[in-house]
Backbone:
């Protein structure tokens, strides 16, 4: 597929948030000893942490936390290093998405410790960025320059993790005032990767960068593209993030009624996770708009 060309639209009917089909086929007694047949890790734990990631994307942050904890418990029972490392990374990822940076930082340190002791380098790009994103001290230009070089050096085997890493790095650059570095990171995501995992976040962060540059029209366009992409995939958590950004922009332009209507619709869809960062920020903004 040519670089930048949009692939076939996703079919939201294929997203089933309630039942991890792979787990229904898993038998610990039969499959735990066959990890080498499944990419070197346990398929049951894999089904659970992948399920957790999908639940968060689909707008079920509390169920996501339950599933990833189930993955950690099963991994601890099996005591298989690669399986444990995988489960811990997804646990850190889920906690980070929920806004619990303290838990994400603690688990990320475990990923680095266990993965490093066994030579698992394919997780380094994502864990390096998570470690900086959850640090107590804000990042500076020197830290970001080092992190950028490390990302280039330690690109993992998974495209989705690297895209996530680049997006989070771009957000750190945005917070640290290194806008050019953030834009370069996002621009390096090309081809089908721009339409695959984390595609709505790529556009949302591009919108935030445009906003800092004083280009509100371009920012609004990117936020709306992010919202549309998230809707097509039924990724309610990412739709909420992009809509919150758009609502802030509209409010700043004096379009308060429009901002409230946009945000109230997606916020009203959620039935759980009201203690998470994204939903709390949306609630505060809605209260202000009201």
Residues:
């Amino acid at each position: 597929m040519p670089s930048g060309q949009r692939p076939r639209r996703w079919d939201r009917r294929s997203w089933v948030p309630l039942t991890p089909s792979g787990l229904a086929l898993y038998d610990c007694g039969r499959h735990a000893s066959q990890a080498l047949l499944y990419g070197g890790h346990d398929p049951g734990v894999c089904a659970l942490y992948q399920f957790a990631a999908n639940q968060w994307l689909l707008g079920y942050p509390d169920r996501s936390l339950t599933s990833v904890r189930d993955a950690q418990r099963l991994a601890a029972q099996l005591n298989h290093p690669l399986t444990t490392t995988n489960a811990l990374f997804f646990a850190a990822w889920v906690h980070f998405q929920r806004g619990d940076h303290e838990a994400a930082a603690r688990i990320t340190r475990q990923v680095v410790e266990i993965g490093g002791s066994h030579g698992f380098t394919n997780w380094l790009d994502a864990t390096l960025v998570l470690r900086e994103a959850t640090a107590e001290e804000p990042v500076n230009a020197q830290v970001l320059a080092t992190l950028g070089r490390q990302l280039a050096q330690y690109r993992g085997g998974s495209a989705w993790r690297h895209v996530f890493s680049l997006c989070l790095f771009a957000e750190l650059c945005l917070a640290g005032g290194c806008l050019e570095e953030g834009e370069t990171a996002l621009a390096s995501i090309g081809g089908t990767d721009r339409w695959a995992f984390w595609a709505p976040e790529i556009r949302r962060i591009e919108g935030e960068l445009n906003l800092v540059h004083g280009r509100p029209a371009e920012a609004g366009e990117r936020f709306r593209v992010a919202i549309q992409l998230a809707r097509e995939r039924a990724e309610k958590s990412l739709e909420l993030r992009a809509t919150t950004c758009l609502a802030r922009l509209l409010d700043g332009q004096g379009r308060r009624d429009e901002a409230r209507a946009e945000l109230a619709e997606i916020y009203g869809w959620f039935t759980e996770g009201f203690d998470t960062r994204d939903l709390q920020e949306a609630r505060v903004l809605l209260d202000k708009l009201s």
Remarks:
- Residues 1-18 have pLDDT under 50 and may be disordered.
- The CA atoms of residues 22 and 47 lie 6 Å apart.
